[in-house]
Specification:
By secondary structure, this protein is α+β, with helices and mostly antiparallel strands. It contains three helices and four strands; from the N terminus they run ββββααα. Bound molecules: zinc ion.
Length: 139
């Protein structure tokens, strides 16, 4: 093992086999005498200095954490939801109905016209119709 004089820091290499558990050492350089402890050798390195912490940073502070996460959207209070009335049903298609009415009127007009034009034949075939034709001025 290595022994170091606490006074002049002179070092001495001493074989472990020759060194007892506890021995009084005398420095040959400065005459300093000290007791070399087997558990604490004189040449032990000083305790390691903990790594310096940068000032202003508390230990354990998270590094790289997001500074300001956007808050979640909050529902607007006090405004009732707008109720949209259902759209009225579309009006039924009357084009077909009107066309049917027009067709019926045209057919009736044609029949009436034909009956009026052929009133002589009609009255001959159906005598009671003569009263109708007479009432209409065609008699
Ligand atoms: Zn010494």
């Amino acid at each position: 093992m290595r022994l170091t004089c606490p006074s002049c820091a002179a070092t001495y290499d001493v074989p472990d086999a020759l060194r007892p558990a506890r021995r009084r050492i005398r420095c040959s350089a400065c005459g300093m005498e000290w007791v070399a402890e087997p558990d604490a050798p004189a040449d032990a390195a000083p305790p390691a200095v903990p790594p310096a912490v940068p000032p202003g940073v508390p230990p354990g502070a998270p590094l790289g954490a997001p500074l300001g996460a956007p808050p979640p959207p909050r529902p607007v209070q006090g405004v009732p939801p707008r109720i949209v009335p259902p759209s009225p049903p579309p009006p039924p298609r009357r084009a077909g109905l009107i066309a049917a009415w027009i067709a019926s009127l045209v057919l009736l007009a044609a029949l009436a016209g034909g009956a009026w034009v052929e009133r002589a034949s009609v009255m001959k075939a159906w005598p009671p119709s003569a009263r109708v034709y007479k009432a209409l001025g065609g008699g």
